[in-house]
Design brief:
alpha/beta, YbaK protein, 6-stranded mixed sheet, 5 helices
Length: 151
């Protein structure tokens, strides 16, 4: 199970995976379950760029700006079909996060996250999350770079 892989990933770091009794599979559900502002949910969207999986972690209320995306990646945004996400990333929709992902997945952090000191990414399942600072997100996400692809 992906949440167990994420727990192992964070083992000994002091970062605890929060397992919730209710679903946190959407931004609104996660915000309600974690009693926080929806924009502090660090949602992770999965795309294919030249056939390779890419994750973009962004603030919960942020939306992809197609023009900015195309400017950065030099192609139109193509999300991974939901039925194929787990195969490419290692986490199913609702639990996609930048931690303990399959080899070859490139992670980007969107600038929309920088307006928060603390964010809550998912942790591999539709009812889990981790609470972390932006510095911790940088440290543990294995991100390639900060980008600006949201409205």
């Amino acid at each position: 199970m992906a949440v167990e892989k994420v727990k192992e990933y964070f083992g000994g770091t002091g970062i605890d995976v929060i397992e919730l009794p209710e679903s946190s599979a959407t931004v609104d559900l996660a915000a309600e379950a974690l009693n926080t502002d929806a924009d502090q949910i660090a949602k992770t969207l999965s795309f294919l760029v030249d056939g390779k999986p890419v994750l973009i972690v962004m603030a919960g209320r942020a939306r992809i700006d197609n023009h900015k995306y195309k400017e950065y990646f030099h192609r139109k945004a193509v999300m991974i079909p939901p039925a194929e996400v787990e195969g490419y990333i290692g986490h199913a929709p609702g639990g996609v996060c930048p931690f303990a992902v399959k080899e070859g997945v490139t992670v980007y952090l969107d600038g929309s996250l920088k307006r928060h000191e603390v964010v809550y990414p998912a942790a591999g399942s539709g009812n889990s999350a981790v609470k972390m600072t932006i510095t911790q997100l940088e440290q543990y996400s294995g991100y390639q770079s900060w980008i600006d692809v949201t409205k």
